[in-house]
Amino acid sequence: MNLGGLGARGLLLYAGFAIVLLLVGLWQGPTSVALILAQALAYSLLALGLNIQFGYGGLFNFGIMGFVMVGGFATVFVSAERNDAFWVSDGPLLLGRAALAFAAGALLVWGARHVDRLGIRGAGRGVCVVLAWVVGYVVYRSQIDPAAASIEATSGWVGGLGLNPVLGWAFGGVLAGIIAFIVGRIALGLRTDYLAIATIGIAEIIRALIKNMDWLTRGTLTVTPLPWPTPRPQELQAIGVGIQESFTYARLGFAAVVAIVLVAVFILISRAYRAPWGRMMRAIRDNHIAAASMGKNVTARQLEIFVLGSILMGVSGAILATFNQIFDPGGYLQVNHNFLIWVMVIVGGAGNNWGTLLGALLIYLVWVISDPASQFLLNNLSDWASSLGWGTIPEIDSRASQMRVFVLGIVICLVLRYAPRGLLPEVIRRSD
Amino acid sequence: MDELIFFINKVMVPGLVTGSVYALGAIGVTLIFAILRFAHFAHGDMMTFGAFLSYVLAGILAGMGVVLPIPLGFAVLPVAMVGTALLALGIDKAFYAPLRQRGARPVTLLIASIGVTMMMQGLIRLFFGSGNRDFFGATEVKELYRIPGSIIGGSRPIVLTEPQVLMFAVTLVAILAVHYFLTTTRLGKAMRAMADNSALAQVSGINTQLVVVVTWIIGGALAALAGTMLALDVNLRPDLAFNIVLPIFAAAIVGGLGNSYGAIAGGMLIGFTEALAVFNWTAVLRPLGEALNVALPANLAIVPTEYKLTVAFVILVITLLVRPTGIFKGLES
């Protein structure tokens, strides 16, 4: 493994992180540390995905939340319990017809886009494309609406396949990759601010779809519980492990599986960074015009890196949903599943995998600890105020949980101002 | 003509309300983009801040026993606008100006504005909690105006609320004021010159620092205006404007980023499209259905109601694909 991006400074920072984690363990107990560790590792994978897109390729993907949700849905679809009521109803038939209608609509749009071969050009072609979209939409809606209503009325939702959750993680990656391919094809021509806003808009569209397609995702009714690839706390308790320990061991077991995925991905992408492929990506990032003039296919390479990063995001979204044992489309927020990841990568050091990993672990710890820390602070402040006769602070719990958003905001602003390249900046070597 | 009145009540009025809020927000976003060349993400939370400032000021007035014929939240608007403009200047000085002086790329400023957005969200929730508040509490009543439908031959009235009428009025005034400022005053012309070419504006002796200050003042004041009017119309929540900051960006981009007239048009376009998209056509087409003897389905909306906010994003994506510079030509990023 290349330790080039780590360096003495990195070792020191990682050692510091380990000490802080230890102190948190002494304060909050091992069960909390196991929880933080498992989630922090999953978020690290997410941050590495963004590091590929932004650090290697310079792409401003602010649609992370969309891919995380797609991953979460994928693991629900693969690993949730089978809903036999659906498979014996006429739901599959109705859905098959809706799929046919969708295919017909897609074919129509594709055909309309190619009417120039029949000699219809310019405005005529535009009219054809718009008409095809309208007709395709109406045809699809005419099939999917009754299908959705019928499924929701008779069997609730489609249900899962009841397979191993690891397959769900893989499916999350595949699904996110496919969606990223489509998104990339349409949006990657835009630069910087425009790309950021377009991807955030697309993520919101994905969220609206997943949240409201109750027949497929169960929407805001949420799906729970989801199976784990490792023994769950309840299963450990069944063989006689104490309640507190069962949570610690189960979470550590889960964290170990995530760590295996993370290490494999880390080694692969670090090798890719040093390979000619990585060098080419940095060349495109730093000056895409120069890279294009050297014969690199900028559009195709950017699409490639966008899809790769999004696959990682899909996988980690699936891992997160599995770990939480619940898929709640209403629980996905721009702050938690988009801005947080950006803070991780920028604080850690975009372009440096060691930095990104450190940033992810550190920021996740800060994010989680901010809540009890500010609660502690507010409680003391409240006691102090009441001892002075000013009265207590109301609703400390709900107020304290908002402090972490503030902390995150101030961290990113300080880092941008005083250490714009992050804690562990990318090492630029001129010789390789 | 009850169908027409139904259409006015369900599409024209809500469309104009949403469109006004989007337009006021989008003017600020687009001016900031024109002068500073970055997408100011914290604009939504500046709107929320302005609304909360109005709320606090109105509460103080009510506590002093002041009773006015207009809603107190509306009466304190000038003060709230000044306060929010000062906040915008402070944020610029503390967070954006140092980055600009370092020569940071515009997208770094975009990320910094996300940081500012998170700080403001955290602080607003810290001080005000996360619950809903209403300007019209115990002391004031939200007045309803019923315009009799008989003037266009219907039996039901057209219903408007007091905040809606005020909103239409102030939006019109604000748009005219911005237009007057940009076209006739020296500073407004300097602003347009800087938007076109900031280097050339600087060598021509335009005080670019002053233009930046004025940009933040206008942006902040309009944000407070939009936020307060929105909060008066619905109610006041900590996520009041964060939810609509993306539709506002969509409005600014659809109109062409950097083009303030485009922002107004884009805001209105998106506001009306949202209202139209979820409008149930069955109610209007019923006479036609009866005439043709066709049974219409109960719900004939173009998209289901829960996708209302998604409409803005779809328009945004289509615009970016088909005509990235917007309907009116905008600026390059």
Describe this structure in words.
The complex is a heterodimer of chains A (432) and B (333). Chain A is mainly α and 432 residues long. Helices cover 76% and strands 0% of the residues of chain A. Chain A is built from 17 helices and no strands. Chain A has helices at residues 7-28, 30-56, 64-79, 84-88, 91-113, 123-154, 165-187, 192-212, 214-217, 233-238, 243-274, 276-286, 288-293, 298-324, 334-348, 353-387, 396-418. Chain B has 333 residues and is mainly α. A two-stranded antiparallel sheet of chain B has the order 1-2. Chain B has 13 helices and 2 strands; from the N terminus they run αααααββαααααααα. Chain B is globular. In chain B, α1 (2-36) crosses α7 (186-196), α1 runs antiparallel to α9 (208-233) and α4 packs antiparallel against α5 (106-128). The mean pLDDT of chain B is 88. Chain B has helices at 2-36, 43-63, 72-75, 77-102, 106-128, 162-184, 186-196, 198-203, 208-233, 245-254, 260-277, 282-292, 308-322, and strands at 144-147, 158-161. Chains A and B meet through α8, α15 and α17 of A and α4, α5, α10 and α13 of B.
